[in-house]
Amino acid sequence: MSARYRIAFTPEARNQLAELDDYITAASSPGIARRFTNGILDHVAGFAEFPHRGTPRDGIRPGLRTTTWRRRVTIAYAVDGDVVVVLGLFYGGQDFVTLLGDN
User: Fold this and answer.
1) What is the Rg, in whole angstroms, of the alpha carbon atoms belonging to the chain?
2) Model confidence pLDDT, tens digit, residues 30-52
């Protein structure tokens, strides 16, 4: 059986998820927002089994990986030992490269 990784969210990633929920709630409804954000959380939960499935982005930040959900949300994360740390959730065309850059 493969090792399971623990998932952790940075405070920034938690805030981004809450802001996304608020934005979708205001634009449509709480139910739609809940389904959308729960879908993101379900996708992230898959990192427990397959933490290296995203694209390595070491040119932006050492150890950074990204993947997308529904082609609308970029999920930025890093694998640290047996923990997958979600660094950010970027909706639409947000410039995650600048926000996560090592500079």
Assistant:
1) 14
2) 999 999 999 999 999 999 999 99
Residue 71 has a pLDDT of: 86
Residue matched to tokens 């970029």: 74
What CA–CA distance (Å, rounded) separates 26 from 45?
26
List the CATH code of the domain at 6-100: 3.30.2310.20
Structure tokens of 3? Answer: 């090792």
Q: Count H helices and E strands in the chain, helices first.
A: 3, 5
Q: Compute the distance between CA of residue 77 and CA of residue 55 in angstroms, rounded to an integer.
A: 10
Mean pLDDT of the chain: 90
Q: What are the residues whose beta carbons fall under 8 Å from the beta carbon of 62, sequence distance 6 or more?
A: 102
Cα distance between residue 22 and residue 7, in whole Å: 23
